[in-house]
Write a structure and sequence with these properties.
about 120 residues, alpha+beta, 4-stranded antiparallel beta sheet, 5 helices, about 50% helix
């Protein structure tokens, strides 16, 4: 039931309240739980930015854009801001298209904390 509650949180404030409740109930969380909270934050930001899927494997992050290439998302201010950020602020990223899937690939990402910092910079 805790995972279900965690999955239904919609904001960082909700996540912080949930973390405080867990601390009150169980004490200081182990590093794995803290990492899970970072992962949840990353997933929320990625969704807000229009990514359907996020994969971190072998120091490479893959962010999959909305799968419908005709989506108005690709004309949106959010998408344009992501493209501007990649062109001006990031030197380890590239865009790739495989079939209908359009993705952003970023090399040299070691852990979810780095994923969070990357997504947070784009979001701002």
């Amino acid at each position: 039931s805790l995972y279900t509650q965690l999955d239904n949180l919609e904001s960082d404030a909700d996540l912080e309240r949930f973390a405080n409740e867990l601390r009150d109930r169980f004490g200081s969380p182990p590093p794995q739980v803290t990492a899970l909270f970072v992962t949840i934050r990353c997933r929320r930001i990625a969704r807000e930015l229009g990514f359907e899927k996020l994969i971190l494997k072998n120091r490479q992050m893959r962010l999959y854009f909305i799968s419908d290439p005709e989506s108005p998302y690709f004309e949106s201010e959010i998408f344009n801001n992501i493209m501007r950020h990649i062109q001006t602020q990031v030197n380890n990223a590239r865009l790739k298209q495989v079939g209908k899937n359009f993705m952003l690939i970023v090399d040299g990402i070691n852990d979810m904390d780095e994923v969070y910092r990357f997504l947070d910079r784009i979001e701002k």
